[in-house]
Amino acid sequence: xxxxxxxxxxxxxxxxxxxxxxxxxxxxxxxxxxxxxxxxxxxxxxxxxxxxxxxxxxxxxxxxxxxxxxxxxxxxxxxxxxxxxxxxxxxxxxxxxxxxxxxxxxxxxxxxxxxxxxxxxxxxxxxxxxxxxxxxxxxxxxxxxxxxxxxxxxxxxxxxxxxxxxxxxxxxxxxxxxxxxxxxxxxxxxxxxxxxxxxxxxxxxxxxxxxxxxxxxxxxxxxxxxxxxxxxxxxxxxxxxxxxxxxxxxxxxxxxxxxxxxxxxxxxxxxxxxxxxxxxxxxxxxxxxxxxxxxxxxxxxxxxxxxxxxxxxxxxxxxxxxxxxxxxxxxxxxx
Amino acid sequence: xxxxxxxxxxxxxxxxxxxxxxxxxxxxxxxxxxxxxxxxxxxxxxxxxxxxxxxxxxxxxxxxxxxxxxxxxxxxxxxxxxxxxxxxxxxxxxxxxxxxxxxxxxxxxxxxxxxxxxxxxxxxxxxxxxxxxxxxxxxxxxxxxxxxxxxxxxxxxxxxxxxxxxxxxxxxxxxxxxxxxxxxxxxxxxxxxxxxxxxxxxxxxxxxxxxxxxxxxxxxxxxxxxxxxxxxxxxxxxxxxxxxxxxxxxxxxxxxxxxxxxxxxxxxxxxxxxxxxxxxxxxxxxxxxxxxxxxxxxxxxxxxxxxxxxxxxxxxxxxxxxxxxx
Lengths: 335, 326
Fold this sequence. Notes:
The structure holds 2 protein chains of 2 kinds. By secondary structure, chain A is an alpha/beta fold. Chain A folds into 2 domains: about 10-190, Thiamin diphosphate (ThDP)-binding fold, Pyr/PP domains (Rossmann fold, 3-Layer(aba) Sandwich); about 205-335, Rossmann fold, CATH 3.40.50.920. Chain A has helices at about 15-30, 55-60, 70-80, 100-110, 110-115, 145-150, 160-175, 220-235, 255-265, 280-290, 310-320, 320-335, and strands at about 10-15, 30-35, 65, 85-95, 125-130, 155, 180-185, 190, 205-210, 215-220, 240-245, 245-250, 265-275, 300-305. In chain A, strand 6, helix 7 and strand 7 (about 180-185) form a beta-alpha-beta unit. In chain A, helix 1 (about 15-30) packs parallel to helix 7 and helix 8 crosses helix 12. Chain A is globular, with a radius of gyration of 20 Å. By secondary structure, chain B is α/β, with parallel strands linked by helices. Chain B has one domain (about 10-310): Thiamin diphosphate (ThDP)-binding fold, Pyr/PP domains (Rossmann fold). Chain B has 11 helices and 8 strands. In chain B, helix 1 crosses helix 2, helix 1 (about 10-35) packs antiparallel against helix 10 (about 270-280) and helix 4 (about 80-90) packs across helix 11 (about 285-305). Chain B is globular and about 50 Å long. The interface of A and B includes residues 70, 71, 107 and 112 of A.
């Protein structure tokens, strides 16, 4: 594995990576501001503490707790961005983006185009989600495909502290709206700490492990399921390449297509439900680019097509797991 | 009302000039669509000329507005050049938005026209952000969000007004209550005045006769002064009447004929024109000359627009993101 997983070397978790990225951006540029529910320190710096310390350091005029008003949050971010600010808006949970879809989809994503480039919307929308905490059907969906399907907005989903920091810095730098998806259950996973100023380019995947038999394409928490799968496959004599997509829109076609051209087999793993998901788009492009060169049909592993269930065994069975990835890879290689 | 701000002579004439421009532009728009020279969705602002005219004379080019699909009156009152408007609604490359926005998305930051939205209620949350920016910078600018009575029943209204009040933003919410939300009368959609809702947010609010330039000017100038002084937002419910159906081509059979006839007989534009002459602020000849100048300017704008090129298909790859699409 290229990824540094030695616990002794761990210096930060993902939550800290995001916090440091926003703090460093705010320190460098007065135009970086933040808003969202419970964001400021009197409200404990967010329900998970991602923004803890920021309002004490930069003032509550720049790090503002808001009413529970998602349309107002995104609207305020859009308006301020039109005149040169770089707002980082939090929509606490990804399911809550549903009540701000007009602001995100009809306005943030489209104002640059509809104004003929006279205005643009350099906002970051932070949102957390993910199964594992028994939160049931309305608190942990992965809805990235909805946004990836909208022209004018970028979508990223980091899986490590370094990537969280680097993608957040790039998202704040970006002149267009970026949806920044944070995985709640892995906020506290420790790994190598990011360096100050580090940037991860939006649209660039990361090859975590090189392999020759099958390419596994994943992102967010699914990386934590895929890493042990790669190790188990190695023991079984299967060489798997693991790609952390990092950006869902625009995704890194170049890296993925080159890898699958070499391995001839691909598995796409995401927590979002399988039908019409990001995996469907990636599979379609792989078929367009590599028809006749594939050694097996492209495989998708996603969430079961049902609302996320509460009951623990069902919730666990909802999202793909290490064993599912191993089984899928073995089946592809044997086919 | 006696202690309220009154427009001086020059301001009254200027309010009328903007009203006459809006009326003439509306009449020409309907005529050009009828002629078949232009196809566009058109939401006539006829009857609502006073509101943005009396509002905008209290604003500068540095102040911002967010308006809606029925917004050509708001845009023209804020100083949008006719040629840029006409080229845009004709879908031409010389339009404000290179023809990519159209009548529902006219944008012109040079004059502070920051957003025109086709979504009912969406002007208000974005106006808050512009006002927040002004508050952070302390630049004294004011943002006006225009919307209709129909928008007062969408959730964004509540969220935006509450946030503006809590954050004491320099924003003015101007509800143009033209009695009609698409095809449904306001009486059927709310039990209270829009202005009364201001109390629920702890915000200044008043209902004014939006067809009376003096009442509208007074409300506007006080709201602008309040915002510039850092004393927070205002909700103005400006009562008016939509002379035509929701969208051009709508036969407006749902509108009460007698009420409509009454409103049109009280057309605010000729009414204010007569008042200016009666009070000696302008002569018939001066106003006729002004109106002729407006007609000529519209003639030139229409010809300019229709002679302008359409954008090339490559424009679909531009302005989606900062970097051109592959």
